[in-house]
């Protein structure tokens, strides 16, 4: 039996165990996924336990994605560029950190038939999700406007992304308010919500008023609970292409599964397992 786990605090809301255990079972693998609620002061100890032979790896979530990096033996280049690790692989006691969120957003766009190349992108948010999504988009889009409540965080991210050699976009930072959004949305081809606005229980909130959405726009939502946020609903109502947050979540999990097992992940089954769990139990 091989064990993978989630290191986070709290972890009770996570969809990872549901997705991965369904996938392990489907492929008949002798693997189990556990939730390890880990307070910051116990992170080092938990990471040490990952080196044991029965452990194959871990996912990492809030609040450990950055602090876990210095506990790794190696960090893959993509994760060090984003400055966060969300997946760990244990190879004979040697721990390597990866970030699969970039693949998550890349595959979710591909699956929806969206090529962001040359688009004008607007991303609301500058936290953890925004770093991975912003990194991916900055290598492809023509312009990336990062809009955040705390403007200094948007500026920091914009300046970091602009300085990367692979950055193809003109990246700018703005403060989150209605005028700025209205102005940015006029020419936008792609809108990302990388804030927690719209997340349960605050399901009536949205980062961008529905009146600023239009048909032809692509909307990428990071929030996956509820399955259909107000932003996704309002985008669909005006005929925009809307990609819900569960798609990115499943695809980042699928890459982690592939890193641990070396096998192709059953993404359709993982999506259904997470969808059913989110729909049921009043989540
Ligand atoms: P985070 O690092 O804490 O960042 C939160 C972001 O939301 C910040 O930009 C913050 O702005 C903004 N924000 C929070 N409350 C706000 C409010 N009332 N008004 C305006 N802006 C607000 O969190 P995160 O890890 O990026 O997660 C953000 C969301 O993405 C969560 O819902 C999370 O579940 C989801 N997520 C999804 C995936 C996926 O695979 N689908 C992956 C990661 C995260 P300030 O900087 O001003 O505080």
Describe this structure as you would to a colleague.
It is built from 10 helices and 12 strands. It has 283 residues and is of the alpha/beta class. It is globular, with a radius of gyration of 19 Å. The two termini are 31 Å apart. The mean pLDDT is 97. It has a 6-stranded mixed β-sheet, sandwiched between helices. A 6-stranded parallel β-sheet has the order 9-8-7-10-11-12, sandwiched between helices. The chain folds into 2 domains: 2-99 and 247-281, Leucine Dehydrogenase, chain A, domain 1 (Rossmann fold), CATH 3.40.50.10860; 102-243, NAD(P)-binding Rossmann-like Domain (Rossmann fold), CATH 3.40.50. It has helices at 16-26, 43-49, 77-82, 101-111, 128-138, 151-162, 178-185, 230-237, 245-261, 267-279; strands spanning 2-8, 31-37, 55-60, 74-75, 87-91, 94-98, 120-124, 143-148, 170-175, 190-193, 218-221, 241-243. Residues 62, 101, 104, 125-130, 148-150, 153, 176, 194-197, 199, 222-224, 245, 248-249, 252 line the site of NADP nicotinamide-adenine-dinucleotide phosphate. NADP nicotinamide-adenine-dinucleotide phosphate binds next to helix 4, helix 5 and helix 9.
